[in-house]
Specification:
Blueprint (H helix, E strand, L loop, with lengths): L1 E12 L15 E3 L12 H5 L16 E3 L7 H7 L5 E8 L12 E7 L6 E10 L5 E13 L2 E14 L6 E5 L5 E25 L2 E22 L2 E22 L4 E22 L2 E23 L4 E22 L11 E18 L5 E18 L3 E16 L5 E12 L3
Parallel strand pairs: 3-5
Antiparallel strand pairs: 1-19, 2-4, 4-5, 6-7, 7-8, 8-10, 9-10, 10-11, 11-12, 12-13, 13-14, 14-15, 15-16, 16-17, 17-18, 18-19
């Protein structure tokens, strides 16, 4: 575990784009499709690349990008799938705005979608042409409807890829004594997969509910011939199935108090096999993996005044890993039975936090927070181990913006690097 204290001071010259006297605290700048004319912009992801001095950071509940005021469960995927012609405007939100949860960011981007009375169907297709003449197509479609605060979306993607071994070939090494070593690699591979997804969002029980789900399947194969003094052959096969679901519920209990609930879960099942052949040895290695992860979080927001916003929340998160492997080969005695390896790992993580954002005047914004996290790792299988950690994570950020061009930020935070 790495404990890292980060201190940063930066002065940014922000380019004012379409900033007028009508700009308010809620929107520092606004962009429409006309701002991206002449640029290769097809999606929201493309558009954000041309927003001055803005970089997408975080993902899901910690992202600095909102869509219709909500953080998407998968930021990169949501931005890529949102066409530019379905965007009404892109709002740039400065720190200190009491209407948004900044999550420690100095500013946010809120993408407002157009209201569509009729469904919009987007079809996209492409093909990769490889030097060996193979053509691998990719095709997909998205059905979307956004009207009266209700959003409905469904989509399907199909794809194929091919690896013709580009970059591989013969390699000759000449040593100081004059001897030469020949190495070569000849490989080919291919993969194919499909993704189906659906999303719904709208009013529910006096609040707003957003639900997303996706399923992805992929399989691949790889063949290779190695020359390194002797000739070796290798074949790999792999298949993956991923299921993911997320939900978010938000309700304003009164004009000042708001409650958020977030649920997310993901499961991946994979099977792989590798066959290896040498002149004097044959082996096969197979592995089955089942990984699961999920989180449940709750957050309460209190707008004490236009200048002060307070938040408190809790989150519970888990990760589980279960794998079985088997290795057999010609080195085994005919009377010896191969043993199956078993590895299981678990991570339980919980956190409690409080934060506040105070804007004492029009030019100064102060954002602070304290989170206390606990973490437990467990490993079972060939060997067993367990370890637990607890640590505080304070943060403090000050932003001074005397005008629309100049901005100074000062921040100090404690970060903890997690194991991958």
């Amino acid at each position: 575990m790495r404990l890292l204290w980060l201190t940063s001071v930066c002065a940014l010259a922000l380019l004012p784009v379409q900033a007028t006297a009508a700009d308010t605290l809620s929107t520092a700048a606004s962009y429409t499709a006309s701002d991206f004319v002449g640029k290769p912009v097809q999606s929201a992801a493309d558009a954000l690349k041309y927003i001055p001095n803005f970089i997408v950071t975080g993902s899901g509940g910690s992202s600095n990008v909102l869509i219709d005021g909500q953080r998407p469960s998968d930021t990169n995927d949501a931005l890529t799938r949102l066409p530019l012609n379905q965007i009404e405007r892109i709002e740039r939100i400065a720190a200190g705005n009491g209407n948004y949860d900044m999550q420690g960011h100095s500013e946010l981007i809120n993408i407002v979608r157009k209201s569509m009375s009729k469904p919009v169907i987007t079809i996209h297709s492409s093909a990769n042409i490889y030097p060996d003449g193979k053509i691998k197509p990719q095709v997909g479609f998205t059905w979307q409807k956004n009207q009266n605060g209700r959003n409905l979306e469904a989509g399907l993607n199909l794809y194929q890829n091919h690896d013709e071994g580009t970059g591989h070939g013969d390699k000759y090494t000449t040593y100081a004594d004059g001897t030469t070593r020949h190495q070569a690699l000849d490989s080919k591979g291919q993969s194919e997969g499909a993704e189906v997804r659906a999303a719904w969002g709208g009013p529910a029980s006096g609040g707003r509910l957003d639900v997303n789900g996706a399923m992805r399947y992929n399989r691949s194969a790889f063949d290779a011939v190695y020359e390194n003094g002797v000739t070796e052959y290798e074949q790999r096969q792999n298949a993956n199935l991923t299921q993911e679901v997320s939900g978010r519920y938000e309700k304003a209990l009164n004009k000042r108090f708001k409650l958020n609930l977030n649920l997310w879960g993901k499961r991946n099942v994979s099977d792989s096999r590798t066959d290896h052949q040498k002149p004097d040895e044959v082996s096969t290695y197979s592995e089955d993996k089942d990984t699961r992860e999920g989180s449940l979080a709750a957050q309460a927001t209190w707008h004490y005044s236009k200048a002060l916003m307070l938040q408190a929340g809790a989150e519970s998160r888990f990760n589980r890993f279960d794998a079985e492997s088997l290795s057999v080969g010609s080195w085994l005695d005919e009377n010896t039975s191969p043993e199956t390896g078993r590895t299981r790992g678990e991570e339980q993580r919980g956190s409690l936090y409080v934060s506040g954002n105070w804007r004492p005047n029009e030019t100064l914004s102060i954002d602070s927070g304290l989170a206390v996290e606990s973490m437990t790792f467990r490993h079972r299988g060939t060997y067993a181990a367990e370890r637990s950690y607890e640590y505080p994570k304070p943060r403090l950020s000050l932003q001074w913006k005397p005008d629309k061009v100049f901005q100074v930020r000062l921040s100090r935070a404690r970060e903890v690097g997690y194991m991958g």
